[in-house]
Amino acid sequence: MMNWGQFGLQDANSPIMEELIFLHDFINMVLVFIISFVGYIMISMVYNKYINMNLLESQMIECIWTIIPAIILIQIAMPSLLLLYMLDESVDSALTMKVLGHQWYWSYEYTDFWSMSNNTQIEFDSYMIPVNELEDNMFRLLDVDNRTTVPFNVHIRMLISSADVLHAWTVPSLGVKADAVPGRLNQVKFVGQRPGIFFGQCSEICGANHSFMPIVMEIVSPSSFLNWVVCMYE
C-alpha cells in the first residue's frame, strides 16, 4: 500500500516483487557508489596540481578503469538474468483466469469454474466507478464496480488479451505486467502472499480514456474465495 509522499516501490505481495525490489535497491546502491567515486576523482583532479601525464596515461590506470566497470556490470547482470528466468518460470497453476482489455474497461473469466445447472462460467466486466458515485471509503480513479477476487498462497495464472487495441494489465504490488494484444494470449503467474486489496492500472496508452480503466484485485483466504464463487452462481 502506498502512502502519501512515499518514495519508492509499493510493498511486495509476491516473491517476484520481492526480488524486483531487491534488484532495484541493489542497482541504486551501485549507482550511488559509482557517482560518489567518479565525482570524488573529478573534483580531486581539478584541485590537485600534482597530476601529471604519466599518471593519466599509465597502463595500470587503463587496466583498472576497464576491469572494475566490467566486474560491476557482471554483478548487475547476474541477478537480472536470474530474475528474468524466474519471471518466465512455468509452474503448475491452481487457478487460471482470462483477462480481456476493452476500450475502456476490463472483463474477467474464471475458466476453471463451470455451473452445470445453467451451463455458464463466472465472467464479469470491471468498470471504474465515476467520481460522482464514489463513497467515503473508495479511491478516486482506482475503485471499480466488480473486483477481481483470488485466493492467497495459491499459484494464479492470468491469460491476457485484448478485444480492440493494445492494453497492459499491471498490478505493481504483485510484480506483474503484461501487454494485452488483440489476437494473442500472454500470460503472467503470481502468488499472493497475504490478503488485502491491491490496485493496478492499464500501462499502455490505449485511447482517450486510457487513465480510466483501473484494476482492483481482492486477495482473500481460500475458503472465502470458494464462498465467493458459490455466491456468484446464485
TrEMBL record:
InterPro entries: CcO_II (IPR045187), CcO_II-like_C (IPR002429), CcO_II_C (IPR034210), Copper_CuA (IPR001505), Cupredoxin (IPR008972), Cyt_c_oxidase_su2 (IPR014222), Cyt_c_oxidase_su2_TM_dom (IPR011759), Cyt_c_oxidase_su2_TM_sf (IPR036257)
Subcellular localization: Mitochondrion inner membrane
Domain Cytochrome oxidase subunit II transmembrane region profile: residue ranges: 1-91
Cofactor: Cu cation
GO-annotated biological processes: ATP synthesis coupled electron transport
Cellular component GO terms held in the UniProt record: mitochondrial inner membrane
Note on cofactor: Binds a copper A center.
Residues annotated as domain Cytochrome oxidase subunit II copper A binding: 92-231
Annotated membrane topology: Multi-pass membrane protein
Predominant place of localization: mitochondrion
Reaction equations catalysed: 4 Fe(II)-[cytochrome c] + O2 + 8 H(+)(in) = 4 Fe(III)-[cytochrome c] + 2 H2O + 4 H(+)(out)
An MF annotation (GO) of this entry: cytochrome-c oxidase activity
Transmembrane segments: 20-43, 64-87
Listed Pfam families: COX2, COX2_TM
Record function comment: Component of the cytochrome c oxidase, the last enzyme in the mitochondrial electron transport chain which drives oxidative phosphorylation. The respiratory chain contains 3 multisubunit complexes succinate dehydrogenase (complex II, CII), ubiquinol-cytochrome c oxidoreductase (cytochrome b-c1 complex, complex III, CIII) and cytochrome c oxidase (complex IV, CIV), that cooperate to transfer electrons derived from NADH and succinate to molecular oxygen, creating an electrochemical gradient over the inner membrane that drives transmembrane transport and the ATP synthase.
Subunit structure: Component of the cytochrome c oxidase (complex IV, CIV), a multisubunit enzyme composed of a catalytic core of 3 subunits and several supernumerary subunits. The complex exists as a monomer or a dimer and forms supercomplexes (SCs) in the inner mitochondrial membrane with ubiquinol-cytochrome c oxidoreductase (cytochrome b-c1 complex, complex III, CIII).
Family in the record: Belongs to the cytochrome c oxidase subunit 2 family.
Protein name stated in the entry: Cytochrome c oxidase subunit 2
